[in-house]
Input
Amino acid sequence: MNKIKTLFDAISIIDDGNILALGGNVLHRSPAVATMEIIRQGKKKLHIVKTAGAFDVDILCGAMSAHIVSAGFISYETEYGLCDFYRKGVQGGTIEAKEHACYTVITALRASVYGVPFLPVRGLVGSDLIEARGFKWCKDPYSEEELIAVQAIKPDVAIIHVQEADELGNARITGPVYEDVLMAKASRKVIITAEKIVPTSTFTDSDCKAQIPGFLVDSVVHLPNGAAPGSCSSFYDIDRKALDAFKMCKTKEDIMIFIENAEKGRL
Amino acid sequence: MNSITYNEADMMCVSIARRIYDGNKVFHGVASPIPMVSIGLAKKLHAKNLVYVNITGGVDVTPTHYEKSTDHPVLFDKTASIFTLIDIFDLSARGELDIAFLSGVQISETGEINASVIGEYDKPKVRLPGGAGSAVLVPSVKNAYIWRAKHDKRTFVKECDFVTTKGNITYVFTPKCIFEVDDKGLKLHRIFKNSSLEDIIEHTGFEVRYDSIVFEDEPTQEELNILHEIDSENIRSIEF
Output
């Protein structure tokens, strides 16, 4: 089945209030252009799941599309500093920060993959996050050791930007994979945005196989520069000019203008 | 006379590198320029068999150059195998990761780290990026190495507003000194020669404990040469 769709059609399956997992890590291979389409379509109350987010999470917070953020780290790293829309949203009470350790996001996604309601995790002991975030303890029925039980997170939709995909949804990530394959398996629906659409024979007739099988994928969007202004390994690096422009944005109106300009730049 | 010139970033990198040992399995995460360069330095100097893992999944990569992002694909490009962040957390959980580098905005007298919020968790005055992996790594890794490119009373506090993590902290590196951590918490271990006991006391928000006054050796010419060679673009200084 041909799963190629327009970006508009692919993103339109996301409903207000959905749990949305975003692939990539900080400014690298994140589905940045897809997040801009989410904003353009006026999606609201989204619950964003990611281990470490930056531009993608920040812009969704700034445009009021995100309401809850479950993540271990939200920042642009050292060069670009804090995510101001996220930070101000949490400080102002419009965004709920469900702080995780990155590993508890991974564990929550694993629980979803394994089809179990929770999984124990080693760590978190001594952290105020246990009480602040309502993590619960469980007891190993064999040894009676007490461990933190991480509740499963089953995203409604995962958006993953990849280097190559075919029209059946088989998707190949070259370079760092991050948690994206786990995310694809944990989610109800998967949207792939891809730098290149390749014939299926690219995978069948070589040793370079896709890591995400097409049967898990709902739609494939051909989206060159889909991770910009972040990087996409072997295609492009961080677009510092565009990021500087985004960091100047103060309001949702500024963000809409930024998105418009980004759109023009890509055409 | 010693005429070697170096700055605070150089001193931090050299002192950290000296405490990474041959054969160690070592991890740094996001926003970690100083640890990234320190690991590269240790590998070139005395720890040729250290195993360097990072978020990109690259294993033991000697990058062509460093980028400001410490999660950049340049840390993956020359890898022979793939060991993802998931694998790294699992490695730590089963007690096999030797050193993990982590940081925070507040570091307390008792060795607690805050990377979450200033103020209350639910109504924060400042929402910080979050501890990334620290809440699980600090209690599970063999040695958590904490670093912070600031040494002042807002960073080194009597008590943290919020405890993101605590646990197996071995050292805390600052631009002025190295603390070690014992049962009671932070204890002065080495003073850098660009600082002094008085300077450290003045800029620390709790009573500084120490057994004796020991200065860390200044960087050698060899250490600095390699530092400048591997990090010619001076990425290590962007934390200052």
About this structure: The longest strand of chain B covers residues 185-191. Chain B touches chain A through 53 residues (CB under 8 Å). The helical segments of chain B are 8-17, 33-45, 85-93, 134-140, 197-202, 221-230. Chain B is about 25% helix and 20% strand.
